[in-house]
Amino acid sequence: MPFGGTPRQYPTYRTGTEGAHPLLGRINPEHGPRLAALPCDLVWATTWMDDANEIIAPRIGLPRSAVVSWPEPADTDEHDERIGLHWKTRALVDWAAGRPFAWVDDEITDVDRAWVSAHHPGHALLHRVDPRLGLTDNDFADLEDWLHWTRDAPPQGPA
Questions:
Q1: Burial environment of residue 101 by CB neighbours within 10 A (0 to 12, 13 to 18, 19 or more)
Q2: Cα 4 versus chain centre, distance
Q3: Which ranges in the chain belong to alpha helices (H)?
Q4: Is the pTM higher than 0.70?
Q5: Confidence of residue 19 (pLDDT cuts 50, 70, 90)
């Protein structure tokens, strides 16, 4: 979902429930079938938490999916913020528990990629989406390529 900037920068999609939240009109309903067709298990890793299943999923035709629960504040938060590590990074690596995972977000940085590489024993794709555009055809192509590669790639050893 694209965020930031002025609303006229983004395409909007009318479904009749945009008044519930100002960003809902920016969600492309065509993304649902494309996401559902990916050869993976979809998981919500968003601050919407389970509201993503209640509000976003039905708008774009997705079934209920697992939701990452975010941890309570920790002693490492201040350190992570100082070094530029995204607040979701540790939780996503913990959630993946060594399994391959792809994280699609508009705030991913090289710091997150380096941390995941050093702390996650499985394959991981940290794919940054341009917040002004949201998911594009190129993003879907990158995800599909990585998912197919991961299916055929040998497992990684411990980090």
A1: buried
A2: 17
A3: 31-36, 51, 57-60, 77-83, 89-96, 110-119, 137-152
A4: yes
A5: low
Interatomic CA distance for residues 150 and 88, integer angstroms: 22
CB-based contact 7:13 (threshold 8 Å): no
**Is 133 exposed, middle or buried (CB count within 10 Å of its CB: 0-12, 13-18, 19+)?**
middle
Strands 101-105 and 124-128 turn out to be: parallel
What does the block give as tokens for 63? 């079934």
148 to 105, 127, 136, 144: CA distances (angstroms): 20, 15, 19, 6
Q: Please calculate the CA angle 134-135-141 and round it to the nearest 5 degrees.
A: 155
More confident residue, 36 or 2: 36
